[in-house]
Structure formats: structure tokens, C-alpha cells
Amino acid sequence: MIQKDENTEKYIVREDSGAVSILTLNQSRQRNALSSKMMSALIFELNDISESPNIRTVILAANGPVFCAGHDLKELKSISSCEAHAALFAQCSELMMRIVTLPQPVIARIHGMATAAGCQLVASCDLAVASETAKFATPGVNIGLFCSTPMVALSRNIARKHAMRMLLTGDPISAEQAWQMGLVSDVVAEDDLESATHALALRIAEKSGSTVKIGKEAFYRQIEMPLADAYDYAASVMTTNMQTRDADEGIGAFIEKRHPTWRHE
């Protein structure tokens, strides 16, 4: 298990505000590259949040002019063994999967550039709010290192030919294009980015935490299934969901025309 050390806060700044936790990438001079230490710090905080019942939404943000430039190329170049490279890419996959499997929804708040594994980070989040000036790219092909792991998240968010165009050309796309393709869920004015993202996080945090947890897990499991299997699975999830206290409260509140009182259970 990854342990927190004295350097963790140098890489990730965490701020909890009510039911919302904000994790900010904090290596602006390195363009918030996903070095091994950056990924360790982020995985640590996500693991801690997964055990925090009072946190119901997570915002992933960044300091500096760049959201995330992907892998730290100097770090990649400094190691030569196949085993070391494999460990680094496995750590990146662990990070992306931790976002997907986190009980709480994760919202990326993107300004500036999100490239390569930084674009993968955006694609791995449940929602993504982008500044209208943000840009996205998977430019590995330009340096002889195809964005193969970013491709996994990217191809599960946008249509195949859009994904292949990004991967084969390395050309950046605008926030508007990213929204049209489905890579981001919202595009807002740069001055409104922080407030709009926080408002969205609060809207989700107001829902039943147990219901959102059930729904997020079910969404990612069913999407990989054949249609008939997905319906069978989703029906079993709804059956289980119906037995929860919050489902009983929510349906009762709707019928009685009152606001529900969630216990998040």
C-alpha cells in the first residue's frame, strides 16, 4: 500500500470543503507531469477519500498554466530497464483505475493543456469541466511513443475515428471539439471555471451518497457487457438498490411531495 510521506503535499494539495474534496496537482514547474511521486501522492489521497464517508464528490484540479502534461519524459528517459518502465506504466494504470473504482464521482477541472497521460486523466474522470481555452492532445506519436495507455481511456469516451485521429496525428483539439466528441461534459468561460465546477460538485454531493456509489459502479460494469447481460445485471442492481433506506426515503418523499432526508445508506 502507498504510504503518505513528507513530500506528498508538495505534489498534491488537498482541500476538503463540506462534502467536496478538491485535489490539486501542485507541480506547475514540471507542467504537473505524472511522475512516479505525483502518481503515488494522488493514489494515496484517492485511497484515503474512498474511506471517507463524509466526502461525496471529488474535484481534480491543477496549479499553474498547464493542467497536466502526461508522463514525466525526463523520468522515462532516466530509467533504462524494461522492468522499471513496466512498473511506471502499471502505476499509471493503477491511478486511472482508482479514479474509476472510487465510490465518489470525480470531476476534472481543466484549464490550459491536458496532453498524453494528462488527457487520459481527464478521460478517466466521471465528469470533466473545461475552460473554453483548454486544449487536449495525445501527441505521443510525434516523439515515437504511441499513446497506448491513454488510448484505453480515450477510446472509451469518444468515437473510434475521433480517437484514432487524435492518436495518429497528435494534433490538439479545442475545448469545444472535446465537448462535441464527448471527452468533456461541460465547457465554461475561463473566469467561471472554478465556480461552475464547484456548483456541479455540490449538486452531486446533495444526492444520496449510497445511491451514487451504487450507480457509478454499475455504470462502469454494465458498459463492458453484451446488451442482454447488461440488462440482467442492471436489473439486479436496481433490485438491490430498492432495498436501501435512501431509496425508500426518496420514493416516499416524491410521493408525499417533500424533500428527502438522506442518510447515505
From TrEMBL:
Coiled coil: none annotated. GO terms for biological process: fatty acid metabolic process. It comes from the Bacteria. May play a role in fatty acid biosynthesis and insulin sensitivity. This is Enoyl-CoA hydratase domain-containing protein 3, mitochondrial. Keywords: Fatty acid metabolism, Lipid metabolism, Transit peptide. The keyword Ubl conjugation does not apply. It comes from Thalassospira profundimaris. Belongs to the enoyl-CoA hydratase/isomerase family. One of its GO terms (molecular function) is hydro-lyase activity. Pfam families: ECH_1. The keyword Ribosomal protein does not apply.
